[in-house]
Amino acid sequence: MNPSIRGPLHIADCLFVYCLFFMDTSLNKYISETGFCSRREADNYIEQCRVTINGKEAHKGNRVQENDVVLVDGEPIKKKKAAVYLLLNKPKGITCTTDLKDKTNIIDFVNFKTRIFPVGRLDKRSEGLIFLTNDGDIVNKILRAGNKHEKEYIVSVDKPVTVDFINKMRNGVRILGTMTQKCFVKQEGNDRFKIILTQGLNRQIRRMCESLGYNVTSLKRIRIMNITLTGLPPGKWRYFSPAEIETITKLVAGSSKTAEGSDGMDE
To answer: Cα 261 to chain center, whole Å?
Structure first.
C-alpha cells in the first residue's frame, strides 16, 4: 500500500490500491522483474515477436494484468529465483549478446547453470569487466546513465597521445549528434590513457577517438563502480563477494529504474 495514503480506507479503496499495485504493469517491466532478462532485452524479445499475452502476439507498450499468461518462445516465464551476480573478465572475441545463434555469445562462453544476462555491453573487440546477473531490477538501475555510475577504462591508440587530445576528450567530443559529457582522462603512456565515464553511448570511447583522428587498438574496462578486475584472469568469472553485493546495493539504492537518459553501460 502506498505509504503516502493517510486516513481510514474502505474495502473498495483497498481493492483499488491493490489493483494499481499488482494488476497493471508494462510488459517489459513484468518480464524484467521475473529475473528473466533486463527491460532492454525484454523489448528485444517483444520486437522479435517472441512474446505472447494470453495467446496473442505482444507489442511494445502492452500492459500485463494479474491473471494474464505471458509466454516467451512459447514457454511460461518462471517466477524470480535467488539473485545471481557474476563478474567476468571478458576476453576479446566474445559478443555481449543473449542470442545463442551467435557462436561467440557471452552466455555460452560463461556456461552458467541457470539463466543470466549481461549488464550492458563491451564491444567484441574490447575486453575487461562485465557483470552478468538474473536480477532485472538492479540491471535497470545500473544501466541508467543518469545514475552517474562510474566505469573505468585503459585505452591504447594508434599514435602518440597529445595534451590537446587529452583536453578535448575531457571536455566533450561531438559524436552521434551530441556532445559527450565531461569526464576524467589521464595519459598513462605514449599512446595510452585512462578514462572514467558515467555516460555510456554506443561505442563511445572508440567514436570519441575517431572524431579526433585516432583509432583504438586496445580497450579494457577495469572497474565498474566499486568492482575491479583485480585478481581475475582473462576469460574467468567469479561471484560477487557479500561485501561487494552490499556496497553495490547501497550505490544503486537511490537510483531510478525509469529515469530518462541513455543506457550507461556501453563502452
So the answer is: 13
